[in-house]
Design brief:
Number of strands: 19
Largest sheet: 18 strands, antiparallel, barrel
Number of domains: 1
CATH topology: Porin
CATH class: Mainly Beta
Structural class: mainly beta
Radius of gyration: 24 Å
Strand content: over 45%
Helix content: under 10%
Oligomer: single chain
């Protein structure tokens, strides 16, 4: 069944891609070439933290490696031919100031074609995937590496409907004896991916609806099946209702199949959010996320004995989403995992808002209450309270400055799950400068079109 599912996606991909290419014919066109830059620099100060791999601490338990500066520097080269062809190349360097290596590579590199009469389009290469609220597929630019995907994307857009098909197949360059293997360390966390996304809305509609289905192939981590691909699936929906000043969002996703060790998956998540915007000056929102989890420790905490065999994995994984945007700015959840990869799920109740006292200035306060989703022997569910405040100001067309501060008061449950024994009052602050200038742009016409206009 899994092989049939994969082959159907591959056959559909080839047929629609050929249809698009044959429908786009040579035509007289205008051309545009642009060079722009993106420079993000962020300094952070951290006092305390739950990550068990932080390094040395002083006699008071404070992390000695709590101050650092990160940078992301990118050049974007873009070419457009009228409204049917577009090419983009984006070399990027990112890393911590003073780091010996850092990451140098290609953030984006793709070619896009579309046919306006039929609504067909195709985009192939390394690209950003942003869908719905970016909870499952998103562009988490906060991480500075800003993950992108090597993928073929194609489909149809028109008359209020959007249908996107995604097809990816990843390999390591040194595969000689095991040519179908994809071991950890590649640019993508998965070996293969096929996805189908549908979205409906109209300019006058007060609602939007999205449906998504994904089939993800992971390299087997089982010792007796090193070259096998193990598949997991995700299906779900995302909805928006926006009458007047009220905007309501809801999502539900279910995961099934098997994870890379061959253990069956049975996990889900649901979320609701409401935002009220009485004026252009401020808005208020409130929401709740529930992500299912496992009921037993994969690795027992100190003072506990025995291990439990997991016949199913019930901990939901939000896959390739923008986790920083949803589960607290301090990124304790779904960015840094608990010890042993165990997850008891998450409940996230939050409230916040945005105030814009003057043009270009945004003030964003927020509060989160975190709790686990399952019952663990000897532990209470609450994980802690987190308060956040961020301010950003755009004082020029391409220059933006941001500053933020977060405070979390963790609980004993949070300490045990993260395997630390430090003061649970955690502070984190940051300052970031973002500069995105256009360095060069030029346009020209094809010779045939220019000659025709002159005649």
């Amino acid at each position: 069944m899994k092989k049939i599912f994969t082959r159907v996606f591959q056959s559909l991909s080839v047929m629609l891609f050929i249809l698009l290419v044959t429908s786009v014919h040579a035509q007289e066109a205008d051309n545009e070439f642009t060079i722009d830059a993106k420079l993000n620099t962020r300094g952070e100060i951290r006092v305390g933290g739950f990550n068990p791999d932080q390094g040395e601490v002083d006699d008071s338990g404070n992390d000695l490696m709590a101050h650092f500066i990160m940078g992301q520097y990118r050049i974007n080269l873009g070419y457009k031919r009228s409204d049917w062809l577009e090419v983009k190349l984006s070399p990027q360097f990112s890393g911590v100031w003073g780091q010996a290596g850092g990451t140098l590579g290609l953030a984006e590199g793709w070619l896009s074609m579309k046919h306006n009469k039929t609504g067909l389009f195709a985009k192939i290469g390394r690209q950003v995937l942003e869908y719905d609220d970016e909870r499952i597929l998103g562009y988490d630019d906060w991480t500075m590496t800003a993950p992108t995907h090597d993928v073929l994307k194609f489909g149809f857009e028109g008359y209020g409907h959007k249908v996107h098909v995604l097809l990816a197949y990843n390999q390591n360059s040194d595969n000689v004896d095991a040519g179908n293997s994809y071991y950890p360390g590649g640019i993508q966390p998965y070996k293969t991916m096929q996805a189908l996304w549908y979205h409906y809305t109209t300019p006058k509609s007060i609602y939007e609806l999205s449906l998504i289905g994904m089939n993800i192939g992971m390299q087997s981590q089982k010792a007796d099946e090193p070259n096998k691909t193990i598949y997991q699936q995700l299906v779900g929906t995302y909805m928006i209702l926006k009458p007047s000043i009220l905007r309501m969002e809801g999502a539900f996703y279910y995961q099934m199949g098997k994870e890379e060790h061959g253990i069956p998956l049975d996990a889900f998540m649901g979320s609701v959010k409401a935002r009220v915007t009485p004026s252009d000056i401020y808005n208020i929102y409130v929401g709740y996320d529930y992500l299912s989890g496992d009921k037993y420790f994969a690795i027992p905490p100190e003072g506990y004995l025995g291990m439990v065999f997991h016949d199913k994995i019930r901990g939901f994984c939000p896959l390739f989403g923008s986790h920083h945007e949803f589960y607290g700015a301090m990124d304790f959840f779904y960015v840094d995992s608990y010890v042993g990869g165990f997850t008891p799920g998450l409940q996230n109740a939050y409230v916040g808002g945005t105030v814009t006292p003057v043009k270009g200035l945004n003030i964003n306060p927020a509060y989160h209450f975190f709790a686990i989703a399952t019952d663990l022997d000897g532990l209470k569910k609450p994980l802690g309270h987190q308060v956040e405040l961020s301010i950003d100001y755009t004082f020029a067309k391409f220059v933006r400055v941001g500053i933020g501060y977060s405070y979390m008061r963790g609980t004993e449950t949070m300490e045990i799950l993260q395997r630390v024994s430090e003061n649970r009052q955690l502070h984190w602050g940051w300052v970031m400068l973002s500069v995105t200038p256009t360095l060069f742009t030029t346009t020209w016409q094809d010779k045939a079109k220019r000659k025709k206009q002159e005649d």
